[in-house]
Amino acid sequence: MFQIQSRRFIIGAAASLATLSLAGLALGSGNAFAQAPVKGGVLIYLEQQPHDNLYPPAGGFYPNGGVLNQITDKLTYQNPKTLEIEPWIAESWTVNADATEFTFKIRPGVTFSDGTPLDANAVAKNFDTYGLGNKAQKLPISEVLTNYKGSEVVDPLTVKFFFSRPSVGFLQGTSVIGSGLVSLKTLSLPFEALGDATKIIGSGPFVVTNEVLGRELTMTARQDYAWGPKNLEHQGRAHLDGIKYVVTPEDSVRIGALLAGQAQVIRQVQAYDEKQVQSKGFIIYAPSTRGINNSIVFRPDNPLVSDVRVRRALLHATNTKEIVATLFSENYPQAKSIIASTAQGFVDNSGKLAYDPALAAKLLDEAGWTVGPRNLRQKDGKELVLTAYESLPQPQNKETLQLVAQQWAKVGVKLNVLAGDAGSRVADNLDPAKTPVAPAMVGRADPDVIRSQYYPTTRNVLLQKGGVSQKVQNFSDEKLNKLLEDIAVATDPVKRLALVGEVQAYVIDQGYAIPVFEEPQAFAASPRVKGFTFEAVGRPSFYSTWIAPK
Amino acid sequence: MVHYLLGRFGQALAVLALTFTAAFLLLQVLPGDAIMIKFMAPEMALTPEQIADIRAAYGADLPLWERYLSTVGQFLTGNFGYSIQAGVPVSKLLLTNLPSTLLLASLGFTAALILTILLAAASNMTGMGWLRAGLQALPSLFISVPVFWLGIMLIQIFSFQLGLVSVISPGPVEKLVLPVMTLAIPISAPLAQILMRNIDQVLTQPFVAVARAKGASRSWVLWRHVARNALLPTLTIAGVLFGELLAGAVVTEAVFGLSGLGGLTYQAVGNHDTAVLQAIVVISALAFVTINLIVDLLYPVLDPRLGSKVGATA
Questions:
Q1: pLDDT (average), residues A202-217
Q2: Fold (topology level) of B94-306
Q3: Which residues of A touch B44 (CB under 8 A)?
Q4: What integer pLDDT is reported at residue B244 of this predicted model?
Q5: Of B255, B259, B269, which has the smallest distance from its Cβ to A253's Cβ?
Q6: Where are the beta strands (DSSP E) in A428-518?
Q7: How far apart are CA A276 and CA B201, in angstroms?
Q8: pLDDT for position B286
Q9: Chain B, 108-127: which have a CB under 8 Å from a chain A CB?
Q10: What are the start-end ranges of the H helices in B63-89?
């Protein structure tokens, strides 16, 4: 096949998207497997930021996921193409009818890199820690394990988990980076000691053999690794002998080093640099994070945006097409709903998301916000001035918000975009009076991600009452919360996806969120790098990767 | 002299204690703390009860004085605590970052000194007016070049275009060549400006004319008579600059991807990582105090007239 310049894994969850899936498969294979893989070699990977705490449930931070995904295995494997859950460390499993009991059969002979066995006992201890937390060690509860009650080691290779309420999302939850399995020794460490990658003992294809904190990680392939996901073409040890992670914060240095042959793969390539990389024959990979789209959310507790007409007006005043065309590339598809078009249960809502400044003006007029002096809308002596903090991990978020501010200004609404230090950002983002608007996104390939994003006791992006914020006066949406609870407990997959569709329509109708684009994680690699793949939400996997000879 | 040293030592301790306390108090005034930043971020998706448990486990809500005393106690026993953001002991962060910063700063400083002396000497020894003017204009150019741009240009030219050095997996010496150049050029600028101006001033002194009248050559006068006199103010500035070097290598470290206190400080400030900042503040204060002490002790070596004054005040 010809040179693949870009391969965004185009995946359909439902069978109706089979044609797209085929396209994805065709792109996925291509020339990468035409030659026999070469064994050996060390791949140099340039990361933009150092990892921080590597407690696996904190693996959502992009740099953390990039490390954890190489060194830990998961109970199950979510096929990134079909999003089906497939065997990995668990050979098989059964779930009871109301999804409160899950029994897993563990693959025999798996060991952690410290030699200890990965058996039912180890798996039980891992999930007990992630599901219940540990106060003495300050280990927090994992986002994907709600209502976790406990475990039972049935026999050395059988483990059973119990939940206090139906937890349909748990099976997919066992496949995410945040549920990576680590040795009992790692589990015994306090939270504040888990930033040292050499202390994270997993059973994965690579082992961290050396770390220069904040700068460099050396990973070495495990020779005895024989338990990769069962359905992968590649089995046995990793092709590479090792990976060297080098933290290179400066964009131009990462790209220059890649083009000069000093590195083979780099993470975080800005959309405006893509052409430069591609024109030299290098390849951009932009796997979708397949969860909640890069969005702008409102905090209706703030009286300025408590009126649904104001929120819907701002939704129609936002020209997402212009944002994508001006700041991004084809790897950042314009959003069609609050979740990615590659996510499970996606429903195309683009009809409700149209850019329509006339409608926006009309809605604002109806809501009583009239254009005053300085071309700014006002009501009862108050001006419609909103504030948002930029989000550093999201690509060009400041530029995105500034462009949105220009678009909103056309209908007489002012948006202030703040940078701020991390302390003010976190504190103010919990206060709806200070941040009526906020950017948001999450990557997770399960409908549970919607519940997690909007539910008050989890991420709570709308700042409802009942979350960690003490500043919320009275905003709460019982209807939304009921729908979200139903997603968590719906055991019938068809009903579950129908609920996901309902939530998407409801959130957009209420103008709670303005989805902007489907966020990818962008990498660039040398054309000699083959078999470079990604797990379901775009974190890199080097297990099947190899470097072709010059 | 012993009295003088003891006095200076006491002063140094007082400076350290004050810095420590001021840093501790200032860090408390900032909105939010490291635990809030880490655990209340939406991606942790924790409930209010879980966060309360974690705050209690860290003792984050104890009264201010209690936390102050326990921090002081920890420091006195050599325990710098843990970085909440990075998840490693602060001592480990310091061990990784301090030596490389010290090495980079020392080499950068030495290179800057050599560059300064070369510039000053060359501009004074050349007979050609246009060359002299050109050399004297160089420091102004050096000081105006942004360090960030300079670093990236050096990498682009010497590493990516010419392939002379690797920036990603360099050897131990190779690793330092470009960063030292990047640091030395802007640091040499103020030093060279001061040295050149002082040389010009000293050259107008009567004793220079006397030395020249006795038949001394231009360069003999420069090295034997002028240099010593012109060096004193330069040394004072150098002491201040070296301290700045330690803390101010952030940009160089970021561009070259080097470990160092600069990057560490930047991260810690952003995340209100109190334990790390507290340690860095104490170390920086220690560095400033030590360097200024060394500079003060060097004065009488360079200028014997100052030696007696030191004796008189002690």
A1: 95
A2: MetI-like fold (1.10.3720)
A3: 58, 140, 143
A4: 65
A5: B255
A6: 437-442, 513-517
A7: 53
A8: 83
A9: none
A10: 64-76
Whether A354 contacts chain B with CB within 8 A:
no
Longest CA–CA separation in chain B, Å: 88
Decide: A76 and A87 in contact? Cβ < 8 Å: yes
Which tokens hold the place of A378? 């006002």
Give residue A342's Cα distance to chain centre.
13
pLDDT of residue B308: 55
Mutation for B interface: A468, A469, A470, A526, most B CBs within 10 A: A468
C-alpha to C-alpha distance for B59 and B52, rounded to whole angstroms: 10
Considering only alpha carbons, which residue of chain A is nearest residue B151? Answer: A253
User: β-pairing, A76-78 with A42-47?
Assistant: unpaired
User: Among partner residues A53, A212, A457, which is closest to B87 by beta-carbon distance?
Assistant: A53
Of B96, B247, B257, nearest in space to B179 by CA:
B257
The neighbour count for residue B55, using CB atoms within 10 Å, is 18
Cβ neighbour number for residue B213 with a 10 Å cutoff: 8
> Where are the extended beta strands (E) located within A451-527?
513-517, 523-525
Task: For residue A135, list chain B residues with Cβ-Cβ distance below 8 A.
Answer: 53, 57
Q: Where are the alpha helices (DSSP H) in A230-348?
A: 251-259, 274-279, 308-317, 320-327
Residue of B nearest to A56 (CA): B44
- Distances from the Cα of B78 to the Cαs of B12, B22, B87, in angstroms? 18, 20, 18
3-state class of B5 per DSSP?
Answer: helix
* Token reading at B162: 């010419």
Amino acid letter, B235 = L
CA angle B94, B96, B97 (to 5 degrees): 65
Summarize pLDDT for A24-44 with one digit per residue, the tens.
333 444 444 457 899 999 999
Mutate to test the interface with A, among B88, B94, B178, B273 (most CBs of A within 10 A): B88
Q: Is the pLDDT of residue A472 over 90?
A: yes
Token duo for residue A287? 């796997």
| Domains in chain B: boundaries | 94-306
Of the candidate ranges A381-385, B84-88, B115-119, B123-127, the one whose mean pLDDT is the lowest: B123-127
Q: CB B83 to CB A468 under 8 A?
A: no
Nearest Cα residue in chain A from B269 = A421
- Average pLDDT score over chain A: 91
Q: Are A543 and A537 contacting, i.e. CB atoms less than 8 angstroms apart? A: no
Which of A311-345 are b and which e, b meaning 16 or more Cβ less than 10 Å from the residue's Cβ? bbbbbbbbbbeebbeebbbebbbbbbbbbbbbbbb
What single DSSP character describes residue B216? -
Cβ of residue A252 closer than 8 Å to a chain B Cβ: yes
More confident residue, A91 or B208: A91
- Looking at chain B from residue 29 to 88, which residues have their Cβ under 8 Å from any Cβ of chain A? 30-33, 36-48, 50-51, 53-54, 57-58, 82-88
Nearest CA in chain A to B162: A260
Q: Which among A213, A247, A468 is the nearest to B96, CB-wise? A: A213
Which chain B residues have a beta carbon less than 8 Å from that of A434? none
